[in-house]
Automatic annotation (TrEMBL):
Zn(2+) 2 binds at residues 94, 221, 225, 231, 239. InterPro entries: M10A_MMP, MetalloPept_cat_dom_sf, Pept_M10_metallopeptidase, Pept_M10A, Pept_M10A_Zn_BS, Peptidase_Metallo, Peptidoglycan-bd-like, PGBD-like_sf. It is found in: Secreted, Extracellular space, Extracellular matrix. Belongs to the peptidase M10A family. This is Matrilysin isoform X1. The lineage of its organism: Eukaryota, Metazoa, Chordata, Craniata, Vertebrata. Gene3D superfamilies: Collagenase (Catalytic Domain) (3.40.390.10). One of its GO terms (cellular component) is extracellular matrix. Ca(2+) 2 binds at residues 160, 194, 196. It comes from Leptonychotes weddellii (Weddell seal). One of its GO terms (biological process) is collagen catabolic process. Binds 2 Zn(2+) ions per subunit. GO terms for molecular function: metalloendopeptidase activity; zinc ion binding.
Length: 274
């Protein structure tokens, strides 16, 4: 795959992170009821989600990246590891950086055709096929209601957005990792892998009626990436980087998501009237 392909992954960080901490942060984390990461784990988090194209000096990179994170999450920008920061670091989240690497969104990729095709290539054992089809359609409709795009399901051949469930290594450079951690990933619009969304079959997928990872919520987020959206720092947005359980019956796009998708594709009504 090309270096410009954008990979997005929903990561469910393990609930029990037995990360030792610097004394002060450990105390703060303990007070917050969290088991925090050591500075090195926090460093990994920041490197992963706040990458920079030019490597800053080692001495100040941690603080600089932490400040970027604090700014993204609308926290006081102190550059100091504290319980609120650690709490966010332990939340389940998407694996795509909150600040895209310079190589990720070089041209703001989007679909040019007004009709985008999709195909569900493989299914999960956790849900009936008809449910998966319904939820994928529901997720796509949430987006297509807001922009002049429509989606057409195809049953054979290559579609723009190929959706599949797979476990472990599955043909791209991003093998899945068993239950937890990475839940899914998706690629920004483009040829080949572009637009494709992969879901880790080692997760326990649910339609909301049972315990597990909510497929509708995850699919809506990943398909947002498939359409070209990055992350939002608005906590109400579907494109917010941390995953949380929501009421899937009343689940909908936030004004921020709608603003984002319309920035790429324009408003639906305007183009309809034209
Ligand atoms: Ca996984
Ligand atoms: Zn994401
Ligand atoms: Zn994949």
């Amino acid at each position: 795959m090309g270096p410009a392909a954008l990979l997005c992954a929903l990561c469910l960080l393990p609930r029990r992170l037995a990360w030792p901490l610097p004394a002060e942060a450990a105390e703060a984390a303990e007070a917050a009821g969290a088991r925090g990461p050591p500075r090195t784990q926090a460093q990994d988090y920041l490197k992963r989600f706040y990458p920079s194209d030019s490597e800053p000096r080692k001495a100040d990179s941690f603080e600089a990246r932490l400040k970027l994170m604090q700014r993204f999450f609308r926290l006081p920008v102190t550059g100091v590891l504290n319980s609120r920061v650690l709490e966010i670091m332990q939340k389940p989240r998407c694996g795509v950086p909150d600040i895209a690497e310079y190589s990720l969104f070089p041209t703001q990729p989007k679909w040019i055709s007004r009709v985008v095709t999709y195909r569900v290539l493989s299914y999960t054992k956790d849900l009936p096929r008809v449910t998966v089809n319904q939820l994928v359609a529901k997720a796509l409709t949430m987006w297509s209601q807001e922009v002049p795009l429509s989606f057409r399901r195809v049953l054979v051949g290559t579609a723009d957005i190929m959706i599949s469930f797979a476990r472990g290594a599955h043909g791209d450079s991003y093998p899945f990792d068993g239950p937890g951690n990475t839940l899914a990933h998706a690629f920004a619009p483009g040829p080949g892998l572009g637009g494709d969304a992969h879901f880790d079959e080692d997760e326990r997928w649910t339609d909301g009626s049972r315990i597990g990872v909510n497929f509708l919520i995850t699919a809506t987020h990943e398909l947002g990436h498939s359409l070209g959206l990055g992350h939002s720092s608005d906590p109400d947005a579907v494109m917010y980087p941390t995953y949380r359980v929501r009421d899937s019956k009343n689940f909908k796009l936030s004004p921020d998501d709608i603003e984002g998708i319309q920035k790429l594709y324009g408003e639906k009504n305007k183009s309809r009237k034209n």
